[in-house]
Amino acid sequence: MDTAICLGDTLTMNLPVSSGTVSWTQPSKTLNESGTLVQFFPTAAATTYIATLTSPYGCVNRDTFVLNTLTVDFSLISDHSICAGSSTNLTVITDDPSSTYTYAWSPSTDLDLSDSANPVATPKETMTYRVTATSDKGCKNSAEVTVTVVTVDTLKINSVSLPEIVVLCENALPATISFQGSATGTGSITDIDYLWTSCCLEFAEAESARAVFLHRI
Fold it and tell me: Where do the domains of the chain lie, and which CATH numbers do they carry?
């Protein structure tokens, strides 16, 4: 008799054999000496098992059954990086759009919905979320996604090519002064955008870490 179990589960079968011994093909584990009590742990979608019964007189009989494996197939959009105070969607992608999986996210911290396939996360710090999907047959599967929260704690001018106090005579213009900025913070900071502004200065490179002042406006 064919049957089905969830992937990762095991099935134990006790054959009503009064005498003789039973041998099996495919991955299985006999739990008694006669082989009538056996445990199956399939790894494929469908596995055919063949049981061979040998009587005390050497007579042989065979029977087969198919053990189907039920799976919960889904994936998550890859890890996210967001700025502090921002939000992002944690999206579950299923191979079967008609699937009726239910979802449970853990932890539920800073999620708008903990049972959604597409919750909005607004974590205050870097957080790893785990989602468990359950099918209508009770089969489960889990996956994790990490949301990295990036913060820029400080922004400072850490070097000046001329003395910090510079006096320029009007008849000495144009003159050039360069400033160097740096940013430090937490998280995966790989690209910092700079914008230099001033009430009275014109910058040649106002959107880079190194700003060059050309002359007084």
Answer: 3-70 (2.60.40.10), 74-150 (2.60.40.10), 152-216 (no CATH)
- Asked if 81 contacts 188 with a C-beta cutoff of 8 angstroms, the reply is yes
Decide: 101 and 118 in contact? Cβ < 8 Å.
no
Q: For residues 20 and 35, give the distance between their C-alpha atoms in angstroms, rounded to a whole number.
A: 9
How much is the pTM?
0.62
pLDDT at 10 (0 to 100)? 82
Q: What is the C-alpha radius of gyration for the chain, rounded to an integer number of angstroms?
A: 34
| Phi, psi torsion values for 172, nearest 5 degrees | -95, -5
Query: Which helix H or strand E contains 210, and what residues bound it?
Result: strand 210-216
Which of 20-34, 58-72, 115-129 reaches the highest mean pLDDT?
Answer: 115-129
